[in-house]
Fold:
Amino acid sequence: MIVLRTVAEVREFRLTCESVGFVPTMGALHAGHLKLMESAVEENVVGIGSIFVNPLQFGAGEDLGNYPRREAEDIALAEGVGMRAMFCPSVEEMLGRSSTRVTVSGVSDLFEGERRPGHFEGVATIVAQLFGIVRPTRAYFGLKDLQQCAVVRQMVADLCMDIDLQFIETIREESGLAMSSRNGYFSESDRAWAAHLNRICRVVAERLVEGRDDFNSVFGWGKNELSRHRFEVEYLDVVDFRTMRPVQSVDIYSRLVVAARFAGVRLIDNLAVIE
Amino acid sequence: MIVLRTVAEVREFRLTCESVGFVPTMGALHAGHLKLMESAVEENVVGIGSIFVNPLQFGAGEDLGNYPRREAEDIALAEGVGMRAMFCPSVEEMLGRSSTRVTVSGVSDLFEGERRPGHFEGVATIVAQLFGIVRPTRAYFGLKDLQQCAVVRQMVADLCMDIDLQFIETIREESGLAMSSRNGYFSESDRAWAAHLNRICRVVAERLVEGRDDFNSVFGWGKNELSRHRFEVEYLDVVDFRTMRPVQSVDIYSRLVVAARFAGVRLIDNLAVIE
Structure:
């Protein structure tokens, strides 16, 4: 495993790679990340990952300071699935004198974008920069962060970046809870209970497909069911993945999206309405 | 000469080019553009230009509708200096569903950025997109648009675009008037008179270097001299090219910058204070 610390080091290494599958992460790797990395390794000559806890995408009062950091462990995990190099830059190396920002409107207006002002600007800016550094052939993102996928997709299309994006379905714990680096914030019993989020969402999706009740009634039922299970619901809706706008009928682009707080942790999840 | 209309056509052509010198323009080519193109042809295996009158960089009430368009003539001129291909996309091809914007703060805060809100966002966005499409080895910009050079330089550094930027000194008419596609808006006699702008600025630069008077006195004298010659001065200052901030002493990064209206045309110019 090659650990790269500077842009110059990545540039030099990149010259030796015919095709690159790139997996940008904020570290604290779990099975979801490793799935992305396995795909990157399988589909490209070289897999390169990055670990950068991006301050631009954390809002005031969010968990930037507490965000789990365990670089040595992460590098070992990435090596285990065949990644060739990991880019682990300092904040100074990435953002030292930076004053450029990339914003993607429309697709970032609602849901996470509405509740986390500046979040997707931070994501888009750093992803654009990482793409500039790594020049990947393909880049891999987890659908767990659905709106992030949609934002990156729109940015890549708009700025005509010649990168093949691969979005990989969410990996879940046995309970159904979506893998997330933030799941470590839970106690063991709360972590088990948090799985109700996905279970209830699957029922909501089934009811939407059945079509016996109108969408609003189904969402009302779902929100009520989540509240009964001690989730504070922020939103529960169905969107077209490409626009991240609510829809009133479902097709293959439809994803049920949810955000809720439970036991002091903010959870997001989403799933295809039509499997 | 190969005329490319779509992103897909550029991508395909690009595969055949070992190194590319890229000259983005808004058309209405003059000797300044041709100088950039000559450099691109000389320093790279292939020279590619673009002609795109970018609506994003024109403000309300600016001259988007009147901006000179003469594609066939421009293509012939580019061919004459050895350019291999010109990318001439439609507005729809470039901006059809685009909602991504690139902003560069700091370097764009003053001067043109202050007076033309949104201008540099429009420039940075389209230049980033053109760079994504063409993937140039080197890109050429004229120092006539000094702050544009500074904005592109900052963007390329911040987003770690692997592009070698070349800034080429302004080409002037025999009178000293900086070449500009907008000079065509003048009557013949006004165009001759407009050369006083550069003449007076050269005297201002000399006085700054002499150092007998403080900067403010010299700028006061220069503004007065310009007014006497019927220029409405918007600004006259000395900046560090890298930051586009005013400086109080001069070095090799110092440029005298000026904007003034004359005969209904807004002129900008700049020159190295130390030759």
In short: Chain B has a mean pLDDT of 97. Residues 119-134 of chain B form the longest helix (16 residues). The longest strand of chain B covers residues 232-240. Residues 64 and 196 of chain B are 27 Å apart (CA to CA).
